[in-house]
Amino acid sequence: MELRKRRGLMAALIVVNIGIPAIFLLIRLIMHVVAPKSYGPAGGYDIFTGLSAGVMYVFGFIVAATLGCTAGSVDLTEGMFRHLVITGRSRLALYFARIPAGLAIIVPMVAVGFTIVCAVCVFAAPTTLHYDGVAVPSGLSLTGFESWAAQHPTEAVCGMPYNGPLEGIGCRIDGNGKVVNQPGPPGLKKVSSTTLRAEAVKIAKQNYTDYSHTFLYPSNLLMVKTGLWIELEAIIGFIVGLGLASLMGQRTVSVVLMIVLEIVLTPIFSHTAIRHLINVQRGLVGLATAHLEPGGLPQAFGGGGGNGGVASIVPETTTVAVIVIVAWLVGWTALGAWRMARRDA
Fold first, then answer.
1. Do 137 and 240 fall within a single domain?
2. Which of 21, 103, 172, 254 has an alpha carbon 20 to 30 Å from 122's alpha carbon atom?
3. pTM
4. For the chain, what is the domain count?
């Protein structure tokens, strides 16, 4: 109740965690309605992955850390700690009561923001899949993708990347916005339709791996995994912020340190392997949660997408990542509780 009564704090947290993605999606919806040919749909797979890994993940941690730092220091800064101690209740009980209280605020708040993102990305998703600018049916198997390419050879050859350019073909867009084949530079003949189809099948085979990871909208399983992953990051931010603020006895410096950890230190040490400090780097909680990121999302803190992106960060096994996360949660809880138990009233 004490945290909820801080209206300025609650308003700021709601604006950052819910307002920013909601306003972004609302603007995209309005722009698409006003000018659908100039602005694409507001939702879809790409919007979901970008907002989840690039916005909700980071902002969820910062919002939770701010709330945790407030919960860990507000009684001290406002002179209420002595009055709490006089009640005779255990100091450890006073500290541990802050954990479920804070999580009861931050977990639903993050869930609401993420639900808005999921709803818009599913219901406002594009109806046609565009792969490298070419309209392609979604969810095709390799055989189906090759069959589509054989039926639309010009779109495949002109629109999709491939190794070994096909000589004698020129590509352009006609008045209806479709890719058409025309003779190439002087001296080169227009290729036959048989050659064009054969080349299109080769191109489809080369591009299928990337195409198979492109969807109109996120699957239910991906949304569930991503939501749990973002909630885990928020829980870590709250508990670590609570312990740090309790240990330091103030909020401002604690919030700044948590933001620096998330925005500056973690991205730097996650992508740069330092031989003599590799084990220290693996001890960063941000690196550990990055290794638990669901496949199909662009890697948190940049560096690629999906499982391929994870390979670009400092290597760490899933077991080690889980141990690091548990150690951070238990360690900072113990430090915060110990400091409150020893603090002068």
1. no
2. 103
3. 0.80
4. 2
